[in-house]
Design a protein that fits this description.
Blueprint (H helix, E strand, L loop, with lengths): L1 H13 L12 E5 L1 E2 L9 E5 L2 E6 L4 E6 L4 E5 L14 E4 L3 E6 L4 E6 L4 E6 L7 E3 L5 E3 L8 E4 L5 E5 L5 H4 L18 E5 L5 E5 L4 E5 L5 E6 L2 H12 L9 E4 L2 E4 L2 E6 L6 E5 L3 E5 L5 E8 L6 E7 L2 E6 L5 E5 L9 H5 L2
Parallel strand pairs: 1-24
Antiparallel strand pairs: 2-27, 3-4, 4-5, 5-6, 7-8, 8-9, 9-10, 11-12, 12-13, 13-14, 15-16, 16-17, 17-18, 19-20, 21-22, 22-23, 23-24, 25-26, 26-27
Amino acid sequence: MKRAAILVVSLVLQLPRLATARDAIPSATIQITPFGAPVGQTPLISARNSRLYLFDDRTNRLFICDGSGRVLKTTGSIGDGPGQFFKPSAMVTSAHSVVIYDRGNSRIVVLTLDGDFKSQFPIKTQLYNIAAGDDDTIYINDPSSGHLITALDINGRMLRSFGDLSSLSVLHHTSNQTRDERFHLTANRVRLAVDKSGRIFAVFMIAPVIREYSRDGTLIKEAGFDDANAHQLQELFWHKDPNLPITSGIIDGNQVPFLVKDAAVNPATGQLVVLTALSKLLIFDGNCKEASVLEIKGAMDSQLWKMAVEDRSIWLVRVFLPGTFHGEIPEPQSLPSLAAKQTH
């Protein structure tokens, strides 16, 4: 009997430990519709001060638009000179700047919010995401440096590095360590976002985990997604259904599903918005607690890739197909809770 009990406990300990259950998380559907943006294929998008920034990777041009999609200015062309780009793969806006990771030219380019050139500097490592604070500090995720996050000024000077690296098994709370060595770098790839106070949020790309850091790099909190969403994402990673349309790609030599596609702080509310492989938007409050869940409807959901958020507006773009989409985030008081939906 004792042996059987020990065996049961051992099996239970090997299962991923999910986030602590939370009661009555508001949940709803968000309907997105085609947005009249002038750009055919826009894998990069950001919003700031009622302006929308769209980067066309076919023509290597940045389109600055108003909230209705009317073009205010275009800038950029293909090349390696100042103000030119070649296949950028990340873009973010801050209070003063547009920051672009110009992947094809192995550099970061900084523009004013009006699209005028400010600075550029070389980047030797492969990046998958960048973030920028309102003080113009640029944050990159480079686990090969031995830290999760590196802070740079707009001229590329390193200010500080912080954030301990983790392992795949630790992030997924499992005793299965067979992939830890191979996924040493991949497991520590994160989506970055910064709020107005300078707090940095790191959302792991292949694990349902969020870390919050202070401006000086001190870890404030590590939290998991709500248990239901965490479990579904973990199942996608460990037991992917080949018939399920999930965006995947190669990161650091490993083919992985992108469990977290994007993350951004809503400048109007300070809430962290996370776009997941489940075609859901998870909205977290300032304490990294999941505040609401929005299921996206109205487009080829699996190909939605990047987003921009400002106040109640959200814009999304697809990774392979052209098209920009817009939706309105419901007011908090209009969202039914998951608990209420499950009782009907």
